[in-house]
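Hi there, hope your week has been kind to you so far. Would you mind checking whether the tokens look sensible for this chain? I owe you a coffee for this, so here goes:
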Amino acid sequence: MLSILIPTYNYNTLPLVKELKQQLDLLKVIYEIRIQDDAGQLFINENSNIIALEHCYFKRNNENLGRSRNINSLVNQSKYDFVLILDCDVFPKDADFVSKYINEISENLEFVFGGICYNENTKPKSNSILRWKYGLKREAISLDKRIQKPFRHLLTSNILINKKKLRNPLFNNSITLYGYEDLELAFWLKNQDKHVKHIDNSVYHQNLETSEKFIVKTEEALQNLKQLEQNRILPKNSTIISSTYNKLFFLESIVNKVSPFLLKNIKPNLISKNPNLFFFDLYKLLYFFSVK
């Protein structure tokens, strides 16, 4: 018995639901697929068609909860203990995607991450290269590398959990802004000695936002990171960015004088056809100095 939960926001999840349902029906298992739109304004008609599919449910929030609280709401609604959580903008890489997760189900299961990948052979539009390149280099981590550092290389866009063996709520409800909710959960899992298993069962990340939008979301996430560390929801030095900031804090006055000029001159590279990820890291560090 399996509950599949898909939080969505302004995205058409119908193709993903149909693919998952097809795989599940072939396996002849008891299941449900629950989709919850977080007060989005787009693809309402497409997503509403989901309720016509057997064992599939669609609900739309009246107000925006944010990703963490939206997922927590879905977990509380789920019928079954074993829960597969997928972001709305992913798609299974393999036709036996669901089967691989079904094979992982046991009473000992706590948390399984299948991985994420990007299509290396199909470049997105020139105004969306940064997100694609970042995903390829920083998120599409091989199984061998993920196993070596199971808590560091952990994203919650493709996870199977036993909800009875994890905390409720799963995500910290105080995180209402975008960014680093995955990291907070990873720290909790590590501190509680939970077993995080990595397997080779990737999903393609399909929704590649423009480089401009990705930079804005990155800035929002860094503002959130500052708040999370200040409020001790995340420990000090929880990321490379914040750790580097604390090591270079004595240079703050100098950095803040030159950062407006540097940020302005780095950004054209980031939104170009060939963005440099070193410059992106530098941009994030300089921006973090400015918000701190």
User: Anything to note?
Assistant: The radius of gyration is 20 Å.
